[in-house]
Design goal:
The complex is a heterodimer of chains A (327) and B (289). Chain A is of the alpha/beta class and 327 residues long. Helices cover 27% and strands 25% of the residues of chain A. Chain B is globular and about 70 Å long. In chain B, helix 10 runs antiparallel to helix 11. The chains are: A alpha/beta (327), B mainly alpha (289). Chain B: InterPro entries: ABC2_TM, ABC2_TM_bact-type, ABC_2_transport, Nod_factor_ABC_transporter.
């Protein structure tokens, strides 16, 4: 199907608003020229080579926004986040998180951030309530543990041992542990993996509620719908660099959102990208409609964030063959 | 959840800058550690109950004889359980400190507990205070249970009051050394799952060669040589000096209790463990960057 899709796109101008354009607002996170490479075994299993995980990354997260980092596995998302969280050091670049360098920041700084990591298998014999209550006491000004448990929807299960919670419940406990310290900046690394649709919805409400309370949120996710729903701005990372950035609606530039008309012509799939889909359909109705007046296999769609994202990832740095209407 | 925009009032800022004290967080951690330990059935059986079970079994098997092994000290006024008690106390201390700490840190590093803690403002020292608190409490209760078992079930006489001072310093030094060595050894297991498999054999071998099950002097010479290098032999010897009559000093290989040497060897291991522990302790897994 892909081969048949020939678009009417012109050269894409991928970024309407760059990841580093702060518009004069306060930044919670600022990254310039970030580099991080790992040692990796060579192809023959002999010797080591340096593999760049993050390769000249720039981004800014504004105070009070939900900022989503998208990208395929191995794009450098988690490496970047963990550098910002202070778990990893960097090879080069400038990083400022809440005004401090995470490499050198101390306890007072960690009291201002909240971290929900990607994989957590550590929840054991303590109950959800016990864990949240104990964690609250590491912080100078924590939220009320009972309120936090209620906010993540775990009140019913608060007295269950963490071990006995379901995957989704554990993830909500992770979030409770991440926000009980009343963070100014919350890192959410793939928070809803394994959620059912309903749990994901209520999680989104929770996150937007936190944002409305003034918490800055830096989110990575594999779910484009999640980014589209939650994020004020998104950045797509590929091969350790920013491939595109902007609001979820503008990502990929205006051309990426051009409606797509597809239909069958003699059993063959045809497609057309056009800003005037109604006109195109009218013309098709006139030219190739079946005796009953219907155009075979007709669809008209506007590319979702997911479509745009996939194009960004599939064809990094290339522009699509353009123009040429097929008919 | 909480109302409105973030409170940036001076009061709240002051609140924010007042981080909880290390000791206070250490107490929270001790409670967490203790709860985790008490609810982990394996730990309760193989750490807490093991010396008690061994004591009960060995003492029952050999308890019928009034005399302990013929070691050429002339008249024995000590029954087997009394001879066996100090070894079991030393074993208990080693399990509760070294084995618990080494396996739990290795597991917590592997499953991400440590990484999660590292992201909070919990001071690193508080984490170790929590371990120490848990170890102290578990071993005190364990030793009390061992002594109670020995007294009530096997009529073991208690030492005179002055001996408890010896007990106190041997206990504190032994527990500290075991804990610190546990922190250092936690770097050895490659994963949480292999932690027990790596730690337990070390503990078992040490138990056998250090004379906690058998009278140390009756062990082969080469075994004694090996055991002398490690702290458990000295810990057990220290405990024997508390619970056995002074006449039994003659049975020791050196013919005396060697308190100074006990303190010296345990202290040396304490320092060695500290140096290695500080250099090798990591919050993250090896494969995690």
């Amino acid at each position: 199907m892909c081969e048949n899709m020939v678009g009417m796109r012109t050269e894409s101008a991928p970024t309407r608003r760059p990841a580093t354009d702060t518009g004069g607002r306060d930044t919670a996170v600022s990254v310039r020229g970030l580099h991080k490479a790992y040692r990796s075994r060579g192809p023959g299993g002999q010797g080591y080579t340096q593999v760049a995980a993050v390769d000249g990354l720039d981004l800014d997260v504004l105070r009070g926004e939900i900022f989503a980092v998208l990208g395929p596995n191995g794009a450098g998302k988690t490496t970047t986040i963990e550098i910002l969280e202070g778990f990893r050091n960097r090879d080069a670049g400038e990083v400022s998180v809440l005004g401090e360098d995470p490499d050198r920041a101390g306890r007072a700084w960690r009291a201002r951030i909240g971290v929900v990591q990607q994989d957590s298998r550590d929840l054991g014999e303590l109950t959800a309530a016990e864990m949240v209550t104990a964690t609250a006491r590491y912080y100078p000004d924590p939220r009320d543990p009972a309120e936090v448990i209620d906010a993540v929807g775990l009140t019913e299960h608060a007295r269950k041992r963490a071990r006995a919670l379901s995957g989704g419940q554990r993830r909500r406990l992770d979030v409770a542990l991440g926000i009980v310290g009343r963070p100014e900046l919350l890192f959410l690394d793939e928070p809803t993996t394994g959620f059912d649709p309903q749990a994901r919805r209520s999680f989104w409400d929770l996150v937007t509620g936190l944002r409305d309370d003034g918490v800055t949120i830096l989110l990575t996710t594999h779910y484009l719908e999640e980014a589209a729903q939650l994020a004020d701005r998104v950045v797509v990372i590929d091969k350790g660099r920013v491939a595109a950035s902007g609001t979820p609606d503008s990502l990929g530039g205006p051309d990426a959102r051009t409606p797509l008309v597809t239909w069958l012509d003699g059993g063959e799939l045809r497609s057309l990208r056009t800003d005037r889909p109604t006109e195109a359909v009218a013309r098709l109705a006139h030219e190739i409609a079946a005796p009953d007046g219907e155009i075979p296999g007709l669809t008209v769609s506007r590319p979702s964030l997911e479509d745009v994202y996939l194009e960004l990832i599939d064809a990094p740095g290339t522009t699509h063959q353009s123009t040429e209407e097929q008919q | 959840m909480t109302a409105g925009t973030p409170d940036t009032s001076p009061a709240r800022s002051a609140e924010r800058s007042r981080l909880p004290g290390t000791l206070a967080v250490g107490l929270v951690r001790a409670r967490v550690e203790l709860l985790g330990f008490l609810r982990e059935r394996d730990a309760m059986i193989f750490i807490f109950a093991y010396p008690l079970i061994m004591m009960a079994i060995f003492a029952s098997v050999f308890g019928g004889e009034d005399q302990v092994f013929d070691l050429g000290t002339g008249r024995m006024e000590v029954n087997f359980p009394q001879y066996f008690l100090p070894g079991m106390i030393a074993t208990g201390i080693m399990l509760s400190s070294f084995q618990t700490v080494a396996t739990s840190i290795a597991t917590e590093r592997d499953d991400g507990t440590l990484k999660r803690l590292r992201a909070t403002p919990m001071p690193a020292v508080a984490y170790f205070l929590g371990k120490v608190g848990e170890v102290l409490l578990v071993s005190v209760v364990q030793i009390a249970a061992l002594v109670a078992l020995a007294v009530l079930a096997f009529d073991v006489p208690m030492p005179e009051a002055g001996r408890w001072w010896t007990f106190a310093w041997v206990f504190v030094l032994g527990t500290a050394t075991g804990t610190v060595c546990g922190v250092a050894f936690s770097a050895v297991p490659r994963s949480g799952r292999s932690a027990s498999a790596v730690v337990v054999p070390v503990v078992l071998v040490l138990q056998f060669i250090s004379g906690v099950f058998f009278p140390y002097p009756s062990l082969p010479d080469w075994m004694q040589q090996v055991a002398q290098v490690f702290p458990l032999k000295w810990l057990a010897q220290g405990m024997r000096s508390v619970f056995l009559p002074d006449g039994f000093a003659a049975v020791e290989t050196a013919g005396e209790w060697q308190h100074l040497l006990i303190a010296g060897v345990l202290g040396l291991w304490l320092i060695l463990g500290l140096v290695i522990g500080v250099r090798t302790f990591r919050w993250r897994r090896r494969d995690d960057g």
